[in-house]
Design a protein that fits this description.
The chain is of the alpha/beta class and about 325 residues long. The protein is built from 11 helices and 13 strands. The relative contact order is 0.16.
Length: about 325
Amino acid sequence: MRQPNFWYFDQPNLLAKLLYPLSIIFSLVGRISLFFVKPWKASVPVICIGNLVVGGAGKTPTAIALATVLKSKGWKPHFLTRGYGGTTTDPLLVNIQKHSSDIVGDESLLLAEICPTWVSSNRTKSAKLAIEKGANILILDDGFQNAGIQKDLSILVIDGEVGFGNKYLLPAGPLRENIAKGLKRSNAALILGNDTKMIADHILDFTGRKFPILFGSIEPKNIQPQFFEKKFVAFSGIGRPKKFFDTLDKIGLDIIGTFAFDDHHPYSSEDLVKLSTYANRHGAELITTSKDRRRINTNINVAIHELPIYIKWKKTSELDKFFDYLEGKSFVTKA
């Protein structure tokens, strides 16, 4: 689904206000559903990387960044994800050589390049299987609003350029839940990019207490020198395609056209022929995100470049405190 522009206006517009009664119903349904869920407690630490809004805030690259640090400290992390965009529902250990995004989703394929990754709509079942297979720490990529598993550490990822949007709940705004309640259930926030919406100040206003706030940015990596000698047509179907297009401009690539698709868009052969034809007409080549590239399963003979990204931490002292906290809890040892 393409996110409506009015969700990210600084103030709710008329349409948002007209939809507000539906937001109240959405909130009530969410609260009632929690009464029927008893969280399962894992025998290993559980870290949740989530957010309060729908769409792409940077959860998956954050999960990858945390897993990389954990592995360097001797942990054996496994990822748990729903596999959005895929068809599988029963717990499945992702095999990047065998599975496609049609089955396990695009994010799962990226995660599985780093650590064992389990896909299922039932994260509790996945967690039990992961522990059986040797995981001594679990990372939920998304799942903050899923009460089925008890979390030991929840980090909210926030896009610094858009923040919480108009601060209305779905469908009047982008929020999955009330900001204050969500912050109360979390242990920290990670603001990615420039804090143009003064999110850090808003968080402290909402919490009324000292709240750990991490800062970082999504940066491109492994930029090939020959890229600067080419022309490109960029396309993307992520939460905010503009963020990807802005990154390409920032690093100085010659972008002669951009095409935005819905989040998790399943690319067809027809899509790729149209994109390739447009690029060829302008003497350009195609470039997209790593996440989009994992959704291109067709065998069509089209050259498509991808731009990998990583999380660059501004300050890691707060992050180190969380790792020390996890190591001090009475869980199984890392070895």
